[in-house]
Known about the structure:
Blueprint lengths: L2 E6 L4 H12 L6 E8 L2 E8 L2 H11 L5 E7 L14 E3 L2 E9 L2 H10 L10 H13 L4 H9 L4 E9 L6 E6 L4 E5 L2 E5 L11 E4 L4 E6 L2 E6 L4 E2 L4 E2 L15 H7 L1 H9 L3 E2 L4 E2 L8 H6 L2 E6 L1 H18 L3 E5 H4 L10 E7 L5 H12 L3 E6 L5 H5 L2 E2 L14 H20 L5 H36 L4 E6 L3 H16 L2 E6 L16 E6 L5 H13 L3 E7 L3 H4 L4 E5 L7 H20 L17
Parallel strand pairs: 18-19, 18-20, 20-21, 21-22, 23-24, 23-25, 25-26, 26-27
Antiparallel strand pairs: 1-4, 1-10, 2-3, 2-4, 5-6, 6-7, 7-8, 8-12, 9-10, 9-11, 11-15, 12-13, 13-14, 16-17
Helix pairs in contact: 3-4, 4-5, 7-13, 7-14, 9-13, 9-15, 13-14, 14-18, 15-18
The structure holds 6-O-phosphono-alpha-D-glucopyranose (G6P).
The site of 6-O-phosphono-alpha-D-glucopyranose has 16 residues, from helix 9.
Amino acid sequence: MCGIVGHVGDEQATPILLDGLRRLEYRGYDSAGLAVHGSNGIQIVRAVGKLRNLEKALAAKGLPGTVGIGHTRWATHGRPSEVNAHPHVAGPIAVVHNGIIENHLELRAELEANGFTLSSDTDTEIIAHLIHRETRAGHDMVTAIRRSLERVDGAYAIAVLSEKEPRRVVVAKSASPLVIGVAKGATYCASDIPALLPYTNEMLFLEDGEIAVLEADGFTLSTLQGTPLSRRLRRISWSPVMAERAGYKHFMLKEIFEQPRALEDTLRGRLDRELADVSTPEIGLSEDDAKRIQRVILLACGTSHHATIAGRYWLEELAKVPAITELASEFRGRDAVVGESDLVIAVSQSGETIDTLMAAKEAKERGAKVLAIANVNGSAIPRMADASFYTHAGPEIGVASTKCFMAQLANLLMFSIWLGRRRETIDEGLASELIEGLARVPHVIEERLPGTLEAVSEIVQDFSEARDVLFLGRGLSYPMALEGALKLKEISYVHAEGYAAGEMKHGPIALLDAHVPVIVLMPQDRHYERVSSNMQEARARAAKIIGVTTAGDTQGQALCDRFVEVGPTHEALSPFVTVVPLQLYAYCVADHKGTDVDQPRNLAKTVTVE
Ligand code: G6P
């Protein structure tokens, strides 16, 4: 995790670096710091806590200069403290780093034996000292960095300043993300696109094993071994406004309200209503490939994992293909059975989650074809995959994922329809019904959003003190129950469990009493009657029932203490509507409690550590 930024140009670096860090704060926010090259050499300011603390420290000190680097931290090695905050300095070198150096203990011992004194507990400081040692031996900055990185095992994206080469920032990467941005008279780097959007749309994603020297008039690129490289810049279509709060109290609320648009953008050009088919040339599978797939393995983490469970149900039902979901972290290193007849779908909002990336790589090495579903164009997972099927949700800033989840559901359903048509397991009538219905979903969500927010915030007044909450659903509502519980845990710190409704009697029922609200998803689908019975069982234990019901379902609503209505859809489309009140429930509880909705404690949006 962590976010890094860098700037070389003619303008003052500090405001640009701070602005970049503000847009990267979602990646980590337990301390932050800047290093700027001014007339008196490199100066550093660091502060513990949120970025505003760094801003205060800078107001007192000021950091004049036009070349600089910055960092916002999510602690891995060493607790959050000023001394552990980046940039780390050794002699003339200052370094910011995102990632983990695995052999740091061995390198630390070696450096200490060589007489270097390390002042922090971090793995990053070691990189600074290694580079310092190489510059002392007479190497220029790039050679010193190359030689140092040869010694390092692990994941890194680094940006380096040297007092000896004042008009440069040098960047390098392995596993952690790094983007370079080029504008007239200035060159930038950052961990993620939104940090650079106010300055440029012309970007280049650094690949593993590459190093770049940034100067005011552009950059040079080479491999760590010294082979020069040249690659075209990519034009990023996101606008800076997309990464602003636009009057909403929190990014999360804005992103929940952006879901209809995120869905429309993701569906655009892909639904062929006339042919009752989905048009997705980017999937990179021929008709024959589609028929030959023996099994689909869906790999993901966190919220994306919940989307894959719905994806599994759709694939089985519509494409009649065996499908399994795997938590990427569990798939790795356990010698899971995977081979050429498998299609692996790696789902990740950021496209950078290290467990998903490494699990998909492992599967690819064993012969499986990998399809990436990601939201960030050109990110690591799509780059390693055989083909990519992007979601178009726009930048998601709130740490708790909402609109990207919605867009992932859309891609997984579209893919299931596409595959079903190729395998002739879904008839034209059903495909057409689903495509028509899916095209209407953005409207069905949008027209109810303001009313749902009002209804949910009223319900929350009565339940915000609950210490435990149970979410129940069956079929496609089961992964939505998991997602509702995760959202609540993430941002309001309330203990919540998502459960398959049929499993309640095998455990959670023992926890029920009048203090435990049970949120039940009960769209009018094939599971409706059985879910109603589970509700009765919970009611009989005095639990308070909050129902997510279809509009006008008075029979279901009569079983609830409180209820929220969602718009009617085809039963296969119910996840798109039922998840929205759950996102809003988590949001309203967190807002009521006054927690930090967009940057919940201990979490980070992009998890580049294992
Ligand atoms: C983190 C985020 C979650 C996200 C998960 C997977 O834990 O806080 O919101 O679902 O990573 O991220 P990905 O980018 O792979 O979807």
